[in-house]
């Protein structure tokens, strides 16, 4: 090796680097490149595997003329040698100098080409199993001598990247390179020790999770294995675990998705030519070659990454493609008799260029034709504003069945010049294939942006299903089970799909009692509700606009029925518009993954759990996660619910979700919400068993300012909140059988620091009902005045305490008990609650009349005096009351 270059004095630097998270092949390539460029400096662009770091530190660091990237003056670099990569996104800070005019770039790589690859002045790219095999050939041809240690490192790279010559990507060049290195003294015992790694306890656990989560799918006739795991901290050697799993399960193609800390890692392996994982992972921002590839992804959820991967797989796998695989569903359609202007608005809303046209015939939907955006635009340009769709639609429309192959689809769309192709079965519209869809398939030029959101109109993530019938029987009463079974039977009669969804299903797994049953119907929810109500002799309230109903049983028990629906938002923080959909899209519109579980109720599949979005995983890990990155932009009130669920269940908000909350606050989306919606969410938080942690969490996310800019969780406020909880617990243990508004007690404490005008402004901002405004703007202030009076005048007779406190409702009395720091005052209010409130006299006006008292205002005076005497303990029985009155009037 040549003399080391002094990076402080050298003016023209040659730097050798590789990809981020360097492996043994990358390390071997850097060593080999250093043999080809003797005066060069080896620099890692970023992190590298833990095993690799230990290897350097313990044994072989002396072989490298290595420098820390922080010590490099990038302006002095004249030649950049890239090994085992040519992707700008994978070389860290070195990507910043790629545009330098005086920079010479040399590339040695074995990965498949991508359109954004770095272009080099010297490029040696060959399809070998390991990149080091390329450099080894050059060293052999130039007869450059190698030491046994150098040969060992280089041979280690070959063994690692070819799976000890078992990977399908292994080539003849890899064998020849290894043979040459063995002849140079490479030590196979060292290589064996380094490649035969022992797994840590964490790795064994993660591998077990990977095996348990393994799902096999058939996509376009190709079996694809997929596993999704999650851990709160980084576990090294994920690719090694995938390799172990491939061997254990004999898997031809696998995609492993792992969320570790705040990143998501995707590792892919393929042993068949039909699936080029390098191309597939490349579209996700990663890299690799046809048989092995990986990607590291930030700022996306597991649901989004899985959805994106499936979208790419369906597009890229070259196999038999059928209409059911290619169609978008549900098909967006329009009634034949609506005006053209409305049809154009519908196209704009869903960003489509053609609509199917239908009408109802004998209670069935009939397909009449289609209409395109161009036809509508021309008609409106010609001032045909009053025209309806029927008058200008195209009626020559071919259709295909769900099993139609690509040639049939191509003939209908291209040869028949048909813009949109309906997929039909038994007279029903299953979906549509557009001309753009077909074009993307034929030329394979679909470019998925890295931050593309899951599209609910595309094929959704396949559900994970399993039977939970035993759990249901253990956790649910016979009464509830009968309701669910009979609901499934009615759905079967009507030909609908029926599912129990939401918190009811979630709480089955959390072992929490929840009998708020929500049933979603694939079909007409209101028709189902009416039929079911007749069967159960129940009452029903329907809401046609939303396709929902409430069924009220004779004993008062209620269940909510909803038509499976999708929502769209016209602008951020808007209220959603609702339309009919399928169970998949209905679940996709929900707030958090843990609320997306559904249980099928139809008889054949009764008790089958459906999990599209890894909700079981998040329940197990106790994490609150949103389904897509625009969730809080669409509906910022979901942030309050995230906090509420986090504190109620003892969960934590996922890192990405927490980041998106902060972003929504930064965008000031809450000022676009009506005060009523904020008030409704705040009220639900204050109804929780202990809202104190949730209020503190609201402060963490800077949300309290939307109640009032000066509201802060001061020590006094938090202390008063804890006092409220103690008082409410005390009150509930009295079993007084009286209802009260818990949220109102907490809100009075929260608003206590504000003057009356400010409090009234807050109530008006919340669009609070006048009956509630009285509590906060009037009664609460009188309560504070009463506390002041009691502090100054106690001890006093019970009758005076009674007269002072009897004017207040329960909520204000509980508030007064919580905020007072005077023990005598608290005891006085407690005595009123437990004793004085129940005191009453038995005598009435007729008793006074018998004694000889003439009717008049004096009656009230006498009865009040008798009550005061009883409150003060001077009289007890009815006889005492009558004697008191006789003496009083005498």
TrEMBL record:
The entry's keywords: CBS domain, Magnesium, Metal-binding, Nucleotide-binding, Nucleotidyltransferase, RNA-binding, Transferase, tRNA processing, tRNA-binding
GO molecular function: metal ion binding; nucleotide binding; nucleotidyltransferase activity; tRNA binding
Cofactor(s) needed: Mg(2+)
Record has Transferase as a keyword: yes
Domain CBS: 327-386, 393-448
UniProt cross-references to CDD domains, sorted A to Z: CBS_pair_DHH_polyA_Pol_assoc (cd17772), NT_ClassII-CCAase (cd05398)
Identification of the protein by name: Putative signal transduction protein with CBS domain containing protein
Source organism of the structure: Desulfococcus multivorans DSM 2059
């Amino acid at each position: 090796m040549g003399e080391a270059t002094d990076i402080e004095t050298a003016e023209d630097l040659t730097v050798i680097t590789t990809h981020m998270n360097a492996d043994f092949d990358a390390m071997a390539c850097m060593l080999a490149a250093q043999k080809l460029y003797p005066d060069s400096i080896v620099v890692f662009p970023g992190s590298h595997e833990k095993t690799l770091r230990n290897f350097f530190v313990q044994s072989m660091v002396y072989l490298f003329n290595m420098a820390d990237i922080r010590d490099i003056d990038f302006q002095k670099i004249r030649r950049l040698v890239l090994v085992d990569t040519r992707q700008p996104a994978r070389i860290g800070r070195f990507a910043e100098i790629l545009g330098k005019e005086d920079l010479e770039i040399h590339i040695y790589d074995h990965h498949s080409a991508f359109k954004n690859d770095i272009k080099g002045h010297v490029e040696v790219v060959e399809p070998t199993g390991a990149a080091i095999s390329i450099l080894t050939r050059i060293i052999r041809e130039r007869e450059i001598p190698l030491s046994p240690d150098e040969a060992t490192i280089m041979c280690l790279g070959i063994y690692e990247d070819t799976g000890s010559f078992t990977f399908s990507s292994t080539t003849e060049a890899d064998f020849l390179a290894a043979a040459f290195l063995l002849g140079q003294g490479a030590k196979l015992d060292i290589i064996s020790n380094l490649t035969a790694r022992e797994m840590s306890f964490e790795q064994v656990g993660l591998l077990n999770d990977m095996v348990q989560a393994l799902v096999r799918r058939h996509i376009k006739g190709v079996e694809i294995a997929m596993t999704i795991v999650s851990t709160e901290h980084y576990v090294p050697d994920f690719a090694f675990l995938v390799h172990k799993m491939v061997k254990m399960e004999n898997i031809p193609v696998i995609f492993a998705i792992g969320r570790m800390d705040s990143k998501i890692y995707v590792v892919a392996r393929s042993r068949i030519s039909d699936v080029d994982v390098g191309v597939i992972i490349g579209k996700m921002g990663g890299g690799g070659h046809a048989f092995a590839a990986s990607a590291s992804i930030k700022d996306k959820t597991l649901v989004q990454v899985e959805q994106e991967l499936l979208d790419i797989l369906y597009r890229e796998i070259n196999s038999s493609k059928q209409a059911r695989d290619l169609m978008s569903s549900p098909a967006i359609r329009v009634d034949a008799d609506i005006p053209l202007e409305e049809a154009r608005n519908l196209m704009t809303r869903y960003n489509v260029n053609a609509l199917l046209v239908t009408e109802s015939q004998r209670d069935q939907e009939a397909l009449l034709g289609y209409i395109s955006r161009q036809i509508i635009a021309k008609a409106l340009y010609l001032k045909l504003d009053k025209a309806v769709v029927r008058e200008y639609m195209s009626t020559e429309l071919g259709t295909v069945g769900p099993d139609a192959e690509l040639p049939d689809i191509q003939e209908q769309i291209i040869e028949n010049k048909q813009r949109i192709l309906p997929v039909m079965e038994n007279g029903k519209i299953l979906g549509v294939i557009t001309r753009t869809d077909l074009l993307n398939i034929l030329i394979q030029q679909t470019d998925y942006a890295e931050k593309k959101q899951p599209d609910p109109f595309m094929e959704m993530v396949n559900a994970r299903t399993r039977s939970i019938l035993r759990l249901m029987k253990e956790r649910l009463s016979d009464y509830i089970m009968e309701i669910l079974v009979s609901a499934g039977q009615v759905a079967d009669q009507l030909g609908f799909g029926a599912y129990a969804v939401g918190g009811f299903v979630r709480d089955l797994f959390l072992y929490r009692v929840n009998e708020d049953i929500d049933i979603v119907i694939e079909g007409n929810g209101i028709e189902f509700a009416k039929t079911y109500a007749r069967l159960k002799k129940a009452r029903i309230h329907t809401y046609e606009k939303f396709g929902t109903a409430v069924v009220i049983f004779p004993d008062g028990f209620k269940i909510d029925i909803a038509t499976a629906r999708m929502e769209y938002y016209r602008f951020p923080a808007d209220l959603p518009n609702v339309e009919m959909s399928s169970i998949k899209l209905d679940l996709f519109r929900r707030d958090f993954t843990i609320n997306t579980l559904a249980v099928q109720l139809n008889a054949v599949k009764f008790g089958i759990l459906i999990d599209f979005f890894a909700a079981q995983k998040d329940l197990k890990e106790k994490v609150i996660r949103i389904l897509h990155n625009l969730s809080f932009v669409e509906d910022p009130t979901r942030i309050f619910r995230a906090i509420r669920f986090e504190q109620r269940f003892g969960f934590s908000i996922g890192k990405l979700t927490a980041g998106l909350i902060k972003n929504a606050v930064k965008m000031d989306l809450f000022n676009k919400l009506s005060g009523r919606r904020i008030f409704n969410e705040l009220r639900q938080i204050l109804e929780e068993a202990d809202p104190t942690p949730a209020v503190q969490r609201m402060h963490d996310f800077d949300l309290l300012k939307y109640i009032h800019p000066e509201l802060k969780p001061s020590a006094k406020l938090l202390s008063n909140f804890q006092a409220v909880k103690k008082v409410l617990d005390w009150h509930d243990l009295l079993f007084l059988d009286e209802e009260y508004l818990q949220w109102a007690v907490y809100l009075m404490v929260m608003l206590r620091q504000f003057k009356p005008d400010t409090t009234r402004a807050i109530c008006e901002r919340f669009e609070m009902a006048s009956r509630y405004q009285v509590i906060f703007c009037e009664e609460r202030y009188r309560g504070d005045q009463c506390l002041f009076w009691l502090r100054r005048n106690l001890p006093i007779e019970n009758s005076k305490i009674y007269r002072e406190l009897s004017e207040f409702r329960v909520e204000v009395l509980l508030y007064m008990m919580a905020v007072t720091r005077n023990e005598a005052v608290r005891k006085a209010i407690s005595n009123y609650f437990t004793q004085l409130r129940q005191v009453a006299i038995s005598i009435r006006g007729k008793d006074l009349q018998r004694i000889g008292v003439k009717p008049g205002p004096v009656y009230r005076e006498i009865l009040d005096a008798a009550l005061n005497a009883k409150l003060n303990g001077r009289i007890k029985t009815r006889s005492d009351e009558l004697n008191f009155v006789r003496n009083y009037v005498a």
